[in-house]
Amino acid sequence: MSAAKILFLCDASDVDIVEKSFANNTHYEPVIETTERVLDYGVQAYLERTIELINKYPSMYDGVVGTHDSSAVFASIIAEKTNKRFAGIQSVINCQNKYISRRIQRRCVSKHTPVFCLALDYLREPSQLNTPFFIKPVRGNISFAAHTIQNPEQLNYYTGRESLDIARYNQYFLDSLSVDPELLDPLNVLTCNNFLCEDLVEGDQVTVDGYISAGRVEIFGMTMAVFLPQSNSFSHHVFPCTFEPELNRRMERAIQKLIPELGLDNSFFNVELRVDQATGTFFILEVNSRIAFQFAKTIESVTGYDPLHLLCDVATGRTPQYDEEKDSHFSLCFNFELHSLTDKWILSTPTQSDFEELRIRFPEVHIRNLVQENAFLSNYKHNPESYRYCILDIPGNSEQEIMDKYKRVVPMLNYEFSEAHEAH
Question: Residue 212 forms beta bridges with which residues?
């Protein structure tokens, strides 16, 4: 039987990982289209053209997938308009619009939902939340414009400073939905460029990965975040992660209840939570209607199965096949994020020969470069505290083994920067 052809929508920085994931896979043939290409082409024009061609030649693709917030929007619209399997566009809106998502969470799993309101509603009635509290864009990513707020004046400052950037970022989202006016959910259009205020939540931060296919929810991994000291920026993530069995079961039951209520089906998902192990309580931070692409190789390094293959199983209506994958020789994997705490001018990034040397010496390590030379780190997506430029998956059988590899790998990447004010 010939390989199923999958329209694989992803970021340009994902391409190397996707190509290597499917190099020896006989079940699927990914046809890769990058988000950057879609944006350059024109979002609405790209979607209309792709939908037209797939409807003209239905056998062109056997499935369509997206790996990040932007590509998941593109994939959901294409799938919905061509009768392919993927998350429906309304379910994607229900996840990506954090205000709509919180409303559904409050109805469905209220005890695990922080108190929340829109920023404008808080300014009208500040008694809704105690200070300090947390703000984030109703629709945004990688913690952009996320802050801890001490008073209404501070909230006014950040909303005034950052609202225009949020509106610019979300324009492709609204352009995508404009392919069909029926996709323009009024509540989404009215709120997506707003800020969401919510209670601060304490505890360990984890990401639970899973999928829903034909209404059945399956969970296959949990990763714990480790933060840089005195910071909201990640140092690394640890897989696998587990808690006391009863706490694990309660978390799983809450997720299994919530995912269908969001309207998701035939889709991967990841749920970020804060867990207080001492009290056994947990709160949902957010739900994403897509694979946690950053952890795909993290999970594969330990389990032996590639989540990107499972993603294609779900997209083509096949039962995900865990047992056909290779064995793993590692019990742990750390997913590191390399950051600069200040903006820098990028002088050099790893060459292909640098990558080849690393593959020879550390074949088990996966590297995802996020930036290119002759640009500022601030030109790329970043959070308020730091500028991320590389992601490393380093597996091993102990923390010491992993950290020893990390200390040897990082200098071999040969990143070079200068101070931002020295550029040009």
Answer: 217, 267
